[in-house]
Amino acid sequence: MQGNSALNSVLNKSLLVQTLEAAPVSRPPVWLMRQAGRYMGEYRELKARHGFLKMCLEPELAVEVTMQPLRAFDLDAAIIFSDILIPAKALGFEIDFNPGPVVHNKLRGAADIAALGSAIRPEAVTPVLKAISLLKSELAKLSGPPKALLGFAGAPWTMACYLIDQGVQKHFQGTQIFARTQAAAFQDLLSILSDITADYLLAQLEHGADAVQLFDSWAGNLSLEDYNALALPWVQKIVEKVKRGGGKVILYVNGSSHLLPAMCASGADCLSLDWRTDLEVAGRLFKGCIQGNLDPCKLFGSTEDVLSSTREMFEKARSLKGRYIVNLGHGILQQTPEENVAALVQAVKNIEESQ
Ligand code: CP3
Fold first, then answer.
1. Is pLDDT at 53 greater than 90 in this prediction?
2. Which residue's alpha carbon is nearest to atom 5 within ligand 1?
3. Rounded Cα gap, residues 157 and 172, in angstroms
4. Which pLDDT does position 351 carry in this prediction?
């Protein structure tokens, strides 16, 4: 351990927070997008008993699911178990999961969007905030170095995709068309989503999240020009508000290599990248922290394959000189062998021992 790490351990800061604060660290922290989920036997058992929505909305269940991968793999961060569509309930949307989100309300145009803004029900996210508070004390009970607790939300473009297309659609063409044919109403929707998202992330930080990740999963469908017009300005607004409130923000966009220069202007402390972007190139363009970017499919080979692709990723990440968080380039896939997740986490721990 080097530099002011002694002070950081007195302050009980997690490795992830230290990395986001650009403090010197002995190895990169590791966590995985969708680390709680169907690839784990324990998760499938709990879901068979309760169902996905109940697991998101009953704080004790959300805490249990969040903790499952931490107990199994000694990850450095927990991410609150929820879904990006849960806060849409605060705007009066009725949502189910099958397994992707299904949105029952149809947004036809300006009148429907104007009605959303006038009936916000913040209490819809109370269970998530309660789960975050409970997790804070649950994580404190674990032995070993402190673990970070991450909050999250969907970014306005990605939320609009699900809300307008009423669920998962290839390329979200309904949203693409709506954005062009009803441009003013669409901007109103993005504005409402931006306001509730910033408030929601700030509330998560107040309840104990150490940092937050903003998922703009489907903004990679946009050209650079459209990203600059339809997604980035609202992300910038959210990041600015959260940072003014003292929070650290990680921004994730899937399929984002063409958007990287624009994402650098988001204000985020950390950019979470998929496997199509070279970590060295990203590190030259962006001065903050970089997270990623193992292809989730690489977790399907032999354990030896997992170790060698992880080593290749570390070689690329060397140039980041500590500005690095290990993660996948997108969420972990359902059929992933649990032992390969263990191998990935162990490979990260081995870096510390070899230094
Ligand atoms: O990372 C974590 O462990 C926290 C949990 C989490 C979930 N959803 C649980 C979930 C997080 C961070 C999310 C975010 C989310 N939800 C995103 C952004 C991340 C990304 O993948 O790009 C998006 C786009 C959604 C919307 C969503 N929810 C989809 C597309 C699906 C279907 C996914 C699939 O794998 O089929 C969901 C459902 C969902 N959200 C599941 C989980 C564990 C699967 C539910 C099940 O068990 O059947």
1. yes
2. 81
3. 11
4. 81
